[in-house]
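Example with several molecule types.
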Amino acid sequence: MGEKVLMKGNEAIAEAAIRAGCMHYFGYPITPQTEIAAYMAKRMPKIGGVFLQAESEIAAVNMVLGVAATGKRVMTSSSSPGVSLKSEGISYLAGSDLPALIVNVQRGGPGLGGIQPSQSDYFQAVKGGSHGDFKKIVLAPSSVQEMASLTSTAFDLADKYRMPAMILADGTMGQMMEPVELPEPNAKSFDKPWALTGTKGERKHNIVNSLYLKPEELEKTNFERFERYKEIEENEVLYEEYLMEDAEICVVSFGITARVAKNAIVEARAKGIKVGMIRPITLWPFPNKVLRAAAEKCKAFISVEMNMGQMMEDVQLAIECKKPVYLCNRVGGMIPSPEEVLAKIESVNEGGDK
Amino acid sequence: MQSKRVTLFAGHYGSGKTNIAVNYAFYLKNLGKDVVIADLDIVNPYFRTRDSIDDLTRAGIRLISSEFASSNVDLPALPQEVYSVFDKKGESAIMDIGGDDRGAYALGRYADYIKNENDYEMLFVFNKYRPLTPTAEDALEIMREIEAACKISFTAIVNNSNLGGITTPEDVLSSVDEAERLSEISQLPIKMTTVTANLVNNLNGKISNLFPLTLQNKIV
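Resulting structure tokens for the full complex:
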């Protein structure tokens, strides 16, 4: 680890990507993620990398696909409406088994929505979010430090499993400034025999493609891909447990809302309420096992998120509806306050809340 | 500390301009002046002068800010009221400029008014702990880009080197050399070193022209 610097979340993602060996960035500006592009525009020319502002999000994601096919680390970033435009390309990346990083610094929706922070693209991120059967690895940072460290993780996982990975942040995470210890340059090298690097007449040419003329073949690629997904669900789940040893109420929250929830949990503990938190760091694969285990000990769950209860459904699935799951949410660019979360914890502790 | 009628705060984005501008407005107000603060940031719609509107209003400081600042729309608009800064010469005016050259273009529109009146200072806010301005040379490059964009030259430097909430007195002390080098290569004086109020006692006597930042916008 190097020296500490004061960074915005967006900048931390950009610098960490460069340190992870990403020398190609294609994007299109949109608030509140524009600092990623701005940072890349300043840095890439100085280090021999590529920054390209494409004519549209659709163009940018297809440029990402092109570079990904050569086996180079590549990324794009956007915010909610822009990610919707990129979703066709993300499906093509998945269908072509190509690693790439997509960053979504979410804002309020649906539609043009607004520019204030939100977590309402949860479904879009973890349930495919485009056409076809596919998954992407989705990481949810909760500090500027994690914006940096999970960017390296995302590149490594994408390369390891040959699939797109996403950083799912929000406007506040992107804009807020915190001290960060940047990772040392850490471009891990992965064997990529499939990459289009030129045959030099010495090997059979590789084909990167998502079109299959025979349905039997297309079915086979889908089955194989889902075998790989099973392996990821088994091996790559990341989460943080906070004060869960004796917890009777389990808060589940990710990203910015997990920070708010932590403050509320400290307050609730001071009032003698046994409450803890499971913070999913990977939203896909989701930490099903630890939640299922918590359902044996806890009497209730509270999902704290900035959407209408999207992750709450995954919590219910994970715990097989063994215990009630309550929702504590704000939407449209609003952030729940620690007081609101505390009030919800108290009412659930007193035997329910509707 | 000497002040001019118009004080402009500009610099690299995220260097601390808005926070310092708001604190400087309170400083001038406490000296008994009539104070107006104008938000000219059309680049970043998050973390704006308007976030301090309650404190400013209570203190009787006039705020000029786009009605779209800190709202849900991303409209790079400037209110016409900005021109009142150049008519009401009885007021001390503070102008908070957007980050980098991109943010400073908006100021260029008022450059002639400011230069004709010739009672201004333009302060470059420097934080050596920001990733793109670790050295005096990096900062000077951004300084020159901003000057080219807004057509006004800087007159002094504000050393705001900090690491947010974990800043120690040593972090501030160890930034002094770089700030002084910036002063040397830019030929501009250091007007002040800004630190959060809790560090002032530790640094008194070790750094001249300390300026305490008492008002802090805290996020989650």
